[in-house]
Amino acid sequence: MRVLLLGGTSEASQMAKALSQAAVNSVFSYAGRTNAPVPQPLPTRVGGFGGVAGLAAYLRREAITHVIDATHPFAAGMSRNAYAACTQTATPLIRLERPAWQAQSGDDWTFVPTLEDTVAALPDEPARVFLAIGKQHIGLFATKPQHHYLLRLVDVPVGDLPLPYTAVVIARGPFDVAQDLALLQDHEITHIVAKNAGGRGAEAKLTAARQLGLPVILADRPALPGQNIAADIGAVMAWLGHDQVALRGV
Ligand SMILES: NC(=O)c1ccc[n+]([C@@H]2O[C@H](COP(=O)([O-])OP(=O)(O)OC[C@H]3O[C@@H](n4cnc5c(N)ncnc54)[C@H](OP(=O)(O)O)[C@@H]3O)[C@@H](O)[C@H]2O)c1
Q1: Which residue from 112, 114, 135, 158 has the least number of CB within 10 angstroms?
Q2: H/E/C letters for each residue in the chain?
Q3: pTM value?
Q4: Do 238 and 202 share a structural domain?
Q5: For position 57, what pLDDT does the model report?
Q6: Which domain holds residue 152?
Q7: What's the total number of domains in the chain?
Q8: What is the CATH number of the domain that holds 209?
Q9: Do 147 and 191 fall into the same domain?
Q10: Ligand 1 mutation target, pool 10, 38, 71, 138, most atoms within 8 A of CB
Q11: CB-based pocket (< 6 A), ligand 1
């Protein structure tokens, strides 16, 4: 058995820990988006594979027997490529997928189908928006330049931002509620825009928004191919035939 773990999320890091503890021969893969990715307890490679063909070639060359897709729910390109390359090479694939966030009492959430739709859901009058979507798609909001945007990024941005009024906070999750309450209050935030990523690492902003009565605009996840989905690390380990392993601290 040789496992390829597609990472870039805190769940992937937990998965890596479980594989390492169970001594499963595995390689961890990062896209290479951040300057200093979190070190993993597994041999790690960094960078794209070169599309479906590149990934299929990698799977063959490295004699990969199982692929675990633990990428972010919005990393749809990688998930689609993994599905296509695994189908082509008949490599078993499982997606570790955290449940989407559900609104609860006290929430003022607007769900929109895509990230692009979040822009139109913002008001026209100037607002103070926490744009909790990473750096990749902030250009979408250039059509609403009247707002003040708070960005929380992993790395200091290089070059000019496409938005005229911004504040940038450099931080890496997981985040806690006290920290996010302070952030929203210090920046006098009136609206939050986020991806419905699910999971615990980025959930604190939603709890903080609930406590402050702030509206949240949430983009739904993209649809992904494949039916073999695990909700937690134990289910992935069972799929690998390692269900007897005690997952210490995972
Ligand atoms: N999208 C988000 O909101 C988000 C949030 C937190 C973390 N992340 C993590 O950041 C990474 C990039 O996200 P994205 O939205 O830019 O992905 P994406 O659009 O789905 O992927 C674009 C390309 O990046 C490469 N890539 C992505 N993940 C990779 C991985 N784990 N290992 C090797 N190559 C990878 C692949 O290049 P090739 O085609 O050349 O193979 C892929 O086709 C993902 O690994 C994801 O887990 C994403």
Answers
A1: 158
A2: CCEEEECCCHHHHHHHHHHHHCCCCEEEEECCCCCCCCCCCCCEEECCCCHHHHHHHHHHHCCCCEEEECCCCCCHHHHHHHHHHHHHHCCCEEEECCCCCCCCCCCEEEEECCHHHHHHHCCCCCCEEEEECCCCCHHHHHHCCCCEEEEEECCCCCCCCCCCCEEEEECCCCCCHHHHHHHHHHCCCCEEEEECCCCCCCCHHHHHHHHHCCEEEEECCCCCCCCCEECCHHHHHHHCCCCCCCCCCC
A3: 0.94
A4: no
A5: 98
A6: 108-219
A7: 2
A8: 3.40.50.720
A9: yes
A10: 71
A11: 6-9, 29-31, 33, 48-51, 54-55, 71-72, 74-78, 81, 134, 195
